[in-house]
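Quick start: what a row looks like.
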Amino acid sequence: MATMVGLFSAIGDNMPIFRHEKMIEATPESWVNRLHYRITCMLLLVAVLLVTCTEWISGTDSIIECMHGESLPPDVVKMYCYIQGTFVIPRHYVGKETQIGNHVSQTGVGPYNPDKDDVSVKAYYQWVPFVLFLQAMMFYLPHIIYEMAEGKKVRRIMGSLHLFVLNREARKSAECDLSDYYVETMGIHDGWSLRVLLAHCVYLINVVGQMFFTDAFLGYEFSKYGLASAMSHLDLEPSDRIDPMSEVFPRVTKCTFHKYGPSGGIQRHDIQCILPINIINEKIYVFLWFWLCILSVLTILDLTHHFILVSFRGVRWVILNRKLNTAPKFKLVQMDIDLALITRSMSYGDWKLCYHIIRNMDSVTAAEWLQCLTSKLREEKEKKVHDMETLPLKSTISFE
């Protein structure tokens, strides 16, 4: 137990995405995205550790144990059945007319005719660690794509403003510099915004794809699980189960070993194999399935939220005002902030960049920056009006 605790506690220290500086840095990604590349990735890597450290599950270093006659070497049989794959007979699944002890020895395990009976091969346990690790990497891949599309723009232009700077003069200088950059570059962020939005869609594509991939990996049987049936049967004894759990993750399976006998004829040995690893496989995939469903719903809602941010101008004023309402009231009384001017001056790309900036600021810094931005926009507006008024009139007189 102490070894397990020490192993899991070291995960955060050795994974860059869980280091303190990574956790507090400015980022345009939402907390839903973090569920993908941080939480889900970590959960899958922990699952890899669980299924590869079999001594925690079965007390041995093997994920399969086979029962056979004395004429067969134990290690040979166990290795053969592990490599070849075991199987169950669907017509012997436990049900209302099939009971363990009366009709079959275990669910799916009973007499069969190789020429007539259909069998369901269970060889996925060989690939579970590799598949889980691959899925962990696939959940981190959208984060890499997102960072490439975003170009770390938010992190670079904000500097240290994502953390509250105690030195008022230094904070004020950084806020003015940021407002100057923002106003000077207004209108050029539309392409950046579109790339970020498309990269955001990759998270949804990945999580939905992982659901179908998990279902295909388990022989298209895992999708048959319902919330009520899986959760209500999870804690039952295998002998009492009539749900798909025992069909997808059987504890006992069959294996057929052929060899030449003393007379030179082929002998068939019917072997029963115990798969203690399926105890943990069952729990991992039940949890993973429902986690992916929840994550898919959250990702759809988050993506819809970002599309609304870009599409509807009315939400801009609401979001900025909501951010200001979290600042101390006495600070707002002293400030001159024109939200209407700010929201009218932005294209959709400018607004998306502004949204990510204020989301990474505390309320006081955001209010001070919006004040600087208001002042800068007014200066630009007055400058344009002055330039229009002082333009030289074009001569309309023509000489013939």
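That is the whole record. The longest strand covers residues 252-260. Residues 278-311 form the longest helix (34 residues).
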